[in-house]
């Protein structure tokens, strides 16, 4: 999504572009896919690090949607967390987010998270910021798919 500082445009224009991109993403998530009951995992560089205004816009002033870091630190206590966090609100400490949505027939739940690209490999930094790997558990009842 739109990089706020690195975009080279005014803050107002950058935020407008980011919000338009968020609107498109939220329309996809809340629209046809949810109506059709399709489970979904969205992962990427959301460019929301330490920016409560952008995070609030994406989450529409609710809890930070179904972000893995929020879920694993505030909702459940059984995720395997194989990384350190910089604050008590780790979903705001990163550019990269993963968001998950189950359906009426498939449950999606993160069960482990770990950092990636957080240290140099052979002296080279592989990314401009840390990424992370998430392991999910998907559960369903086979009888729900007999139709």
Strand order of the largest sheet: 2-4-5
Q: Class by helix and strand content? A: alpha+beta
Percent helix range: 25-40%
Describe the global form: globular
Mean pLDDT value: 80
Number of helices: 4
Order of helices and strands: HHEHHEEEE
Radius of gyration: 17 Å
Instruction: Estimate nothing, just give the exact number of structural domains.
Output: 1
- Give the number of DSSP strands: 5
Biggest beta sheet attributes = 3 strands, mixed
The rounded distance between the terminal residues' Cα atoms is 38 Å
Query: Stretches where pLDDT falls below 50 for ≥5 residues?
Result: none
Hey, roughly how much beta strand do the residues contain?
Answer: 15-25%
Task: Describe, in plain words, how this protein is organized in 3D.
The chain is an alpha+beta fold. The protein has one domain.
